[in-house]
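ingest -> fold -> write
write: protein_1
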Amino acid sequence: MLLFIYVCIFILNLVAILLTYRFLGNELEKKEKGIFIIVGIAVMYLLVTIVYWLSTKSINLGQSMGEGQNLITFAFVPVNSMLILPFLASSYKSLKMGNMEDIIFKRRTILLVVVLLVVLIFEFFYFKDIQTGILNLINRS
C-alpha cells in the first residue's frame, strides 16, 4: 500500500513539473525554465514543511514522524505546485516576452500568493488529522 502511495506521489510531482514546463512555453531557454521550476518546487517544499511543522508541533508523533512528514510533504507539494506554478509560469513568460506590463505581473503574483496562503491555511488545519491517519496506515503495514 505504501509503495502505491509513493508511486502516485511521484506521478503527481511529474505532472506538476511537466505542467509548469508546458506553461513556460517554447520562447524561454531550457536553462531558464529549469531554474524557474526548481526554485518554484523548492519554495513549495519549504512552505509546506513550515506549515506541517507549525500544525503538528503539539502532536506526539513518535518514531514514525519522519515517514509521515515525508508522505504529507511529498503529497501536498505537487498539488500546491499544480495550483500556483503554471499560472505564475504563464505570467512570467508573458512578462519576459514583453506581452505584459510589470504592474499587471505584480498584481497577478499577489493574487497567486493570496490563493497560496488560503490553501496553506486550509492545509494547516488538516495536517493534524492527516498525520494521524498516515500514522495509522504506517502502523498497519
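write: protein_2
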Amino acid sequence: MPNSINLTLNPHLNKTLRFFFLSFLGLFILGIYLIHPTTMITNRWDTAAIVATHLFTLFFLLPVFFGSITQLLPVLFGIENVFLKTFDKIIIILPLGASVFLYYFKNAELYQNNALIVSLSLLWLTLFHFATQIIKQARIKYNELKKSMYLHLIIALLYFILGTALSIWLVLIHFGFSLPWFRPVITDLHLMLFLLGFFYHLFVAISQHIIPMFFITNQIPENIITRQLKMPLLIVLSLFSYPFHLINLGFKIAIFYLITEYIIQLFLRLHKRRRSNEATISLWYLFFLCTVISLVLWLLNSFFSQSLEKIELYIGSMIFLGVFFNLILAMILKIIPFLIWQSLTHKQMEMMNFETNLPALNDFILSTNIKKVSQLSCVLLIAILTQNYQFMGAVLIIFSLFLCYLTINALKIQQNTMSQINDHHSTLQT
C-alpha cells in the first residue's frame, strides 16, 4: 500500500513557491550566461564550465530541493515542520552566498579572499544545521515506523553533509591552503557524493511513494527498495579501488545495475499506470531516456584508463539538463497544482463553503501547456546532443519564462477562486 500522507502539517504554499521562483530566476541567469559570447566551454575544467555547473546546482537544483522539502517533510515523511525559520534564512543566505562565490570564481579572485570565506561560511553552517536537524527527526521516525524511506532520507542528507564538506576543501585550496588531492580526485568525489549519494537516495525515498500516488500504480517491491541501500557500500568500494582499474570497473558495473534495476521498475509501473491521460508522462519518459544515455556514457567512459574530455561534457550536460531537469519538471508540474488545490480546499473547509466548485488539478496548469514543456524539453535534448551551449542557453531562458508564467497563471486561478469562496461566505453571513 502507498505510504499515507499527512495534509494537516504542511506550511503555506508561499513557503514553497518562493524557492521555485528563485529556481526560475537561476535558470534564466544560467541561460544568459550560456549565450554570452565570452562563455567558452571546451572541457570540464574550464572556468565557464564550472560556473555554469554551479549556476545550475546552486541556483536551480538546491532551490527546487528546499522548496519541495518544505512540503515533503510534513506531507510525505510525517516530520513536523519545525524548520520554517531555517528555510527563512536559507532563502536569503543561499542566493547571496552562491552569488559571491560565482562572481569571485569567474573573475579568479578566490586567493586569500576573506569576504568570500565569510559569506560561504555562513552558507555552509546554515546547510549543515539544516541537514543535521532533519537527520535527527528522520531517525526518530525510522525508529517508530521502520520504513526504508527514512533510511534513504538519512543517507541522502549524510551524503549532502559530506559533499558540502568537500566543497569547503576545494574552496580552501583555491583560497591558498596547501591540501592534497585536488583535481580530479576530490572533484570527482564531490560529484559522486552529490549525484549517486544525495540526489539518488533522495529520489528513491520520494519516488517510491509519489509515483503510486499521482499515477495510481502499484508500489515497487520492498526488496528492491531495500537493495538500493547497498549503494553506499558500492560507492565506498568504488572509491577505495580507484587505483585498480579493473576492480573499480567491476564496482561501477554493480552501481550501474542497481540504478538500472530501480529505473526499470519505475518505468514499468508508469507504463502500466491507471491514470492513462497524464500529460507529464512524456517528461518521465524523457527522464528515463536521458538516464539510460547518461549511465551508458558513464560506464563507457569507465572502460578507459583516462577519462575522455568530450564524453565527460556529454555526461555532465545529460545528467544536469537531461536527467535532473526532466525529473524536476515532471515533479513540479504536479506539485504546484496540488499545493494550490490543497490551499483552496483548506480555505473551503475553514469557511464551510461547499457551494463554490473548486478547479480540478488539471485546470491550474493545462495539459496543452505541459505538452509544450515536453516539446521544449525535446528541443533542449537536441541542444545537449549537439553540445551547442548558446542554443542550450536560449532554450533555458524560454523555459524559465514559461515556467514562471505557468506558476503565476495558476496563482491567478487560485486568487479568483479564493475571491469566490470569500464572496459566497460574505453573502451567507448577510
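write: annotation protein_2
The mean pLDDT is 89.
The two ends are 47 Å apart (CA to CA).
pipeline exit 0
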